[in-house]
Design a protein that fits this description.
Blueprint: H1 5-22, E1 47-48, E2 51-52, H2 55-69, E3 77-81, H3 88-99, E4 105-109, H4 120-130, E5 132-154, E6 161-168, E7 173-178, H5 180-189, E8 195-200, E9 206-212, E10 228-229, E11 237-247, H6 248-256, H7 263-266, H8 274-289, E12 293-297, E13 299-303, H9 310-319, E14 327-332, E15 336-338, E16 345-347, H10 352-355, E17 358-362, H11 368-381, H12 388-400, H13 403-406, H14 414-429, E18 439-442, H15 450-459, E19 467-470, E20 476-478, E21 485-487, H16 492-495, H17 508-521, H18 528-540, H19 543-559, H20 567-576, H21 580-590, H22 604-609
Parallel strand pairs: 3-14, 3-17, 4-13, 9-10, 13-14, 18-19
Antiparallel strand pairs: 1-2, 5-6, 5-8, 5-11, 5-12, 6-7, 8-9, 15-16, 20-21
Helix pairs in contact: 2-3, 4-9, 11-12, 17-18, 17-19, 18-19, 18-20, 19-20
């Protein structure tokens, strides 16, 4: 794990590009929240920064914010408890916004831990490290000035772009040549004459600081969000302290993958070895001692914390004791309930030893006036014009059902759907609308239970039902929720409504053609002999298994610097990664040496079926 300061600069610039790619202008459920809405003395304003009501909870959150900024909350966490729709998530987001953009904020649902393809503790470790920032300071050579003129030319023959940019300070003026990447960066940032910019000489990164004050009268190029700055003084070339902020998790990913920062694009980065993290922590500690870096504890928000089990709570107990732990904010809407993984009851489903570490903030239901004010803010956020009568009706619905329902989140009442269906039917009769049935694909349909099948039976009779395509790999099996056997685990009355398409195993020629297409798709060069061997493996094991071997065999070929995958590469990975039949045979031969085993007599036929 070779971490150098230069590599951290690359990390910062690349992760910033990724964030730019994933940033979307959209209206979310909490997008109206700008902060906690507190004044300088930490007193909550009635309506401010998107926050309404919850005076006591916001005051408590403000005090905790003060403790966070003073570094006095290490080893503790916050629990926000209250009924559904009482602003628990809004308070957590408000705290994160108040900390500033540089402070990492990670949001996680308790149930999400169990759906990730990694261990529960690894998922929590990654969430913790996503919430811990490293602020790195370094001196960089930059060019800073006001843009006077930009000239960009495009070659008629090759299409390549070239250009020049003229920059000035109060003391000097100079012209610089622009490369292809810098031209793209200028166009992306929409830089024009009159902008104050900085250019990092090492990376070529261009940052826009704002508009020159001298151009404040140019109304055609000034927007409501324009920021005016003074024209720089002195030399164009300067040495300036640059601050990069990255998370420990981003550093972990980049240093644990051969493809470096490109691993951040993959999303599913898998488990990271503890040795990598230890080396990174050691290096960061060295930088802290040298004054080149500092730790920025961020915020980890765990919603539905009652969904975690006893193992997760055990990890949280230990993790909160770390001096570099983030601020952990938990939210729950449960009262006295069982701790998952045990038979013990506890407040909020959280063990008492962990509860003892928590500062608990209570939220209370919104009154009618507060509900109306929140809905009014949401209308403004979503750019919706609404009449006073409609707003009062929405408020009434919110009080009778829930604020989330009035805000178009959660389950939708059947009465609402019936009214919509009636209106759409009227439009169809008038020729103003028509129904366009889409496609609903339900994979692993055998996993549905008898209640779901009952609904499908009824829903398929609707004239506006979509085309429903189901898929299953089961034969005769029990219908879930019953003790009855049925073909594919589907009730006979529903099977009677279905047109059944049967698929058959691929023959050898088809298998080879599919593998060839997969090689082209994954940009893998493979020899004819290696392709035939992969085909043979696919026929003897499974097509999926042989497809998995393509990428792994390609990595082995790259390792030995070969331009194409050969037979030896396929044989190597075939020995490294076993298929289902070999795995079952291994378990049969060595079952008695495992800690637990249930099957006493497994014959070869059972292994073949597996």
């Amino acid at each position: 794990c070779n971490l150098e300061m230069a590599s951290l600069e690359g990390i910062q610039s690349k992760t910033q590009e990724i964030r730019d790619l994933t940033r979307m202008e959209r209206t979310g459920a909490q997008s109206h929240i700008r902060g906690l809405g507190l004044d300088d003395s930490l007193e909550p304003r009635k309506i401010s920064q998107g926050m309404v009501g919850q005076i006591e909870a916001r005051r408590a959150a403000g005090i905790i914010m003060k403790m966070i900024t003073q570094g006095k909350i290490a080893g503790r966490a916050i629990l926000i408890g209250g009924q559904p729709g009482t602003g628990k998530t809004a308070i957590a987001l408000g705290m994160a916004k108040s900390l500033g953009e540089d402070v990492p904020f990670t949001m996680l649902a308790g149930s999400e831990i169990f759906s990730l393809e990694m261990s529960k503790t690894e998922a929590l470790i990654q969430a913790f490290r996503k919430s811990i920032g490293v602020r790195i300071r370094e001196e960089a050579e930059i060019i800073e000035g006001e843009v006077l003129e930009i000239e960009i030319d495009k070659s008629v023959q090759s299409g390549a772009k070239s250009g020049k940019i003229t920059l000035k300070t109060t003391d000097m003026e100079a012209i610089y040549d622009l490369g292809q990447k810098m031209i793209e960066s200028i166009q992306k940032e929409k830089i024009q004459a009159g902008d104050i910019i900085t250019i990092d000489k090492a990376s070529g990164k261009i940052s826009k600081l704002g508009r020159s004050i001298a151009r404040s009268g140019d109304y055609d190029t000034v927007g409501s969000s324009s920021r005016f700055v003074q024209c720089p003084e002195g030399e164009l070339h300067k040495r300036k302290e640059v601050v990069h902020t990255v998370t420990l998790h981003e550093v972990d990913v980049i240093n644990s993958r051969t493809q470096g920062f490109m691993a951040l694009f993959a999303g599913d980065i898998g488990e990271i070895k503890q040795e990598v993290r230890d080396q990174i922590d050691t290096k960061v500690s060295e930088w802290r001692e040298e004054g080149r870096a500092e730790i920025v504890p961020g915020v980890l928000f765990i919603d539905e914390v009652h969904m975690l089990d006893i193992e997760c709570f055990s990890y949280l107990n230990r993790a909160l004791e770390s001096e570099s732990a983030p601020i952990v904010i938990m939210a729950t809407n449960r009262g006295m309930t069982k701790i998952r993984g045990t038979n013990y009851m506890a407040p909020h489903g959280i063990p008492l030893d962990l509860l003892d570490r928590l500062l608990i903030i209570q939220t209370t239901p919104y009154n009618e006036k507060e509900t109306q004010q929140i809905l009014q803010i949401r209308c403004q956020e979503e750019d919706v014009e609404i009449s006073d009568k409609a707003l009062k009706l929405l408020t009434k619905i919110g009080m009778e059902t829930s604020l989330l329902f009035a805000g178009d989140i959660g389950e939708i009442k059947q009465e609402v759907r019936d009214q919509i269906d009636t209106k759409v039917s009227e439009w169809r009769e008038e020729g103003r609308a028509e129904i366009v049935p889409g496609v609903l694909f339900i994979d692993e349909v055998h996993m549905l239970d008898i209640e779901c099948f009952s609904y499908l039976n009824r829903a398929l009779e609707s004239e506006s039902a979509p085309i429903v395509i189901m898929a299953t790999n089961r034969g005769m099996t029990k219908i879930r929720g019953t003790n009855y056997m049925a073909p594919h685990g589907i009730p006979l009355d529903l099977l009677d409504r279905l047109l059944i398409i049967q698929t058959t195993p691929y023959n050898e020629k088809e298998t080879q053609q599919i593998l060839q297409i997969r090689c082209q798709e994954e940009d893998v060069e493979i020899s004819d002999k290696a392709l035939k061997l992969l085909t043979k493996i696919g026929m003897e094991t499974s097509l999926r298994y042989s497809i998995h071997l393509i990428t792994t065999a390609n990595l082995v070929a790259i390792r030995r610097k070969s331009p194409e995958v050969d037979v030896e590469d396929v044989r190597r990975v075939y020995g490294l990664f076993i298929d289902i039949k070999r795995s079952s045979k291994f378990l049969q031969d060595y079952q008695s040496e495992f800690l637990f085993y249930e099957a006493d007599d497994i014959d070869d036929k059972d292994v073949e079926m597996a």
